[in-house]
Structure formats: structure tokens, C-alpha cells
Automatic annotation (TrEMBL):
Protein name: MAIP1 protein
Organism of derivation: Glareola pratincola
GO BP terms in the entry: protein insertion into mitochondrial inner membrane from matrix
Top-level taxon of origin: Eukaryota
Lineage: Eukaryota, Metazoa, Chordata, Craniata, Vertebrata
GO molecular function: ribosome binding
GO cellular component: mitochondrial inner membrane
Amino acid sequence: TSPIAWLRTRFYYLLIRLYFDQEFSVEEFTRGAKQAFSVVSKLLSQRKLDLLNELVSAEVLQVLKEKISLLPDSHRDALAADIDAIMYTTEGDVRIYYDDDGIKFVSILMRFWYLNGANLPDEVPGETKVFQIVFGDESTKEKRHLLTANYEFQREFTEGAKPDWTITRIEHPRLLE
């Protein structure tokens, strides 16, 4: 991340703590986002979309239902991210906004890099190289792919709103397009 983007996200986190949630912690949010990413990605991989109602917005869920049904098994398997296989996580963007009715929202885009052992071709659609990591010696090779995903989390901070984060965007580039 660029230093300017890093400073900007830290400024937004400060605003969240000052004006919306004095208990907000970047570390705690990131831990929760990783857990949510792992759970949601596994449910997507298993096509258990009915279990995502409380975690994912209705609009995103509708799009996912259409896309998941068209995926080949190898791409569907590659969606699953075990929490221990998440190699790196970072914030992509933080936004605070109000709608015309005075409803306050905070939106945080998280980027995840994770290892997955799905049987993907060396090149996935879109002309992008998938990184492959080989564990073990020549006789016991275990091939893993380093994949990325972007999940956007949104929470309403209007008084009386449920204090839950909802996933409002799910992107698994080159897999879920």
C-alpha cells in the first residue's frame, strides 16, 4: 500500500472511533473479516448459499447464485480459503457516507491472499498467471495456488441499527467472474 493510502485509511479509522464506535479496533475488525472470509468462501465452494443470508447482502447473494451455478468444479473448489491458509490481508479502501435520509454507513474493502490446492490450470481465464507453490520434495510434491479475493464489509451506524457487518461485495478475480 502507498504511504498516502495507508495514512488515509488510518484517518478514516480514527473517524470511525471518534464519531461512530469508540470500541472499534482495526486488529479486531481484521480478525473478524478473516473469519468471515474463510466461512463465506467455504460456503460458496460448497454451494451452501442459503446459509449466507445473515452474512451477505441480498443483492450480492442473488448475483452469487447465478455465478456459482455456472462454475466448473475446479474453480468452485478454489474459492475455499481455510483461515490458516490466508497468507496476507490488507485494507483496500475505507469509506464513510450518509444517504439522503441521514443513514450513516461505513464500508471497508478487504483484500485477501490465500493458498489453495484446487486443481486449476496453470493459466486461468483472463490471461493472468496463477502463482504456484510446491511443498515437499519431487516425490511428494503438493501444488498450491496463491489466489486473491476482495470482500467489502459494510455496517450501518444509524442509532437503533443492528451492529452487524454485512458483506456487500465479493470478488474472486479470474475465478468468480
